[in-house]
Amino acid sequence: MNVRRLRKRSKPAAYVICEAEPEPTPQESVQIKAFGGRARQAARAQNRILMCAVVFVFVFAALGVRLAYISFGQIKPAVTIATLQPIDAPRPEIVDRQGALLATDLPMVALEVAGREVWDPSETAQGLAGI
């Protein structure tokens, strides 16, 4: 089987010619600039990057203004503070479906001694024995 490779055809170069007249000179000459395809793509990419940079600057400036407004602005803090009244009612017992007791509230007193803060162990033991 004879397989031929197709040659890649080169794309014709497209040029855009811009005519711009500089300030009037004694010779009254016209400058002509020619841009290739890659130069046009590069210019277009630079314009897009510039537009994105401008949008980001505006967004971050707006966020900065909002932050300054909240920090120094006219927002007044709430005057009322929520308070919680302690409930002295005992907790109910927790039972399963058959009525077996799972948890209950037992009144107890706890005492804890920090070992490193005890200066005299025998005096501390006598004091705790009296309690």
Judged by helices, strands and strand pairing, the structural class is alpha+beta
Q: Enumerate how many helices there are, as a single number.
A: 2
Provide the helix percentage: 25-40%
How big a fraction of the residues is strand? 5-15%
Tell me the strand order in the biggest sheet: 1-2
Low-confidence stretches: none
The radius of gyration is 43 Å
Question: First CA to last CA: what distance?
Answer: 106 Å
β-strand number: 4
Describe the structure.
About 35% of the residues lie in helices and about 10% in strands. It is elongated. The protein is built from 2 helices and 4 strands; from the N terminus they run ββαββα. Strands 1-2 form a two-stranded antiparallel sheet. It has a two-stranded antiparallel ribbon with strand order 3-4. By secondary structure, the protein is α+β, with helices and mostly antiparallel strands. The model has no long low-confidence stretch (mean pLDDT about 80). The longest helix is centred in the middle third of the chain and has 36 residues, at about 35-70. Strand 3 (about 95) and strand 4 form a beta hairpin.
Helices and strands, with pairings:
Elements: E1 16-20, E2 31-35, H1 37-72, E3 94-95, E4 101-103, H2 121-130
List keywords for this structure.
131 residues, alpha+beta, two-stranded antiparallel ribbon, 11% strand, elongated
